[in-house]
Amino acid sequence: MISHVDSDGRPTMVDVSGKTATLRQAHARTRIHLPESVASELKASGAVTKKGPVFHTAIVAGVMAAKRTHELIPFCHPLGIEKCRVTVEFDTEHADDVIVDCHVAVHHRTGVEMEALTGASVAALTVYDMCKALSHDIVIGDTRLITKTGGKSDYQSRDTAA
């Protein structure tokens, strides 16, 4: 049964009132592929464009987005996030790629996967926005859940490239 539909087929928020509050954690990642010229320019400038510090701004945007996920995605529970760490770095294996990681944690009755995915996604969109004057050939690639812990079951991505 789909969890966001009641017995009469109407959309509904999942009732988590009977669940036990536990430590819930999630890690999500987004990959951004930059054209070689953009990657070179960012590296040479210390990741600063005319719009400002790209990676630092993306980190702030990612944290803000994770905290407001319930305002963006229907039926997400509002959570008092206790930890949100976003990192934005060049990939050491693929020189023209940027990796955005978002780690979120909370003691609650529901998980933080959507918060981590939202944080990583918005941070990547911010990189795009701040670099689009350099090229529109920037590709925001895979956004994926890497791990989640707490709740009924834990999850670990099977993809070793994650």
Can you describe what's shown?
- The mean pLDDT is 94.
- The chain has one domain (22-151): Alpha-Beta Plaits (2-Layer Sandwich), CATH 3.30.70.640.
- The protein has 162 residues and is an alpha+beta fold.
- The radius of gyration is 17 Å and the shape is elongated.
- The two termini are 30 Å apart.
- The protein has helices at residues 36-45, 54-67, 69-72, 113-131, and strands at 22-33, 48-49, 52-53, 83-90, 97-108, 139-149, 155-156.
In short:
The protein is of the alpha+beta class. The chain is built from four helices and seven strands; from the N terminus they run E-H-E-E-H-H-E-E-H-E-E. The chain has a single domain (22-151), classed as Alpha-Beta Plaits.
List keywords for this structure.
7 strands, single chain, Alpha-Beta Plaits, two-stranded antiparallel ribbon, 162 residues, alpha+beta
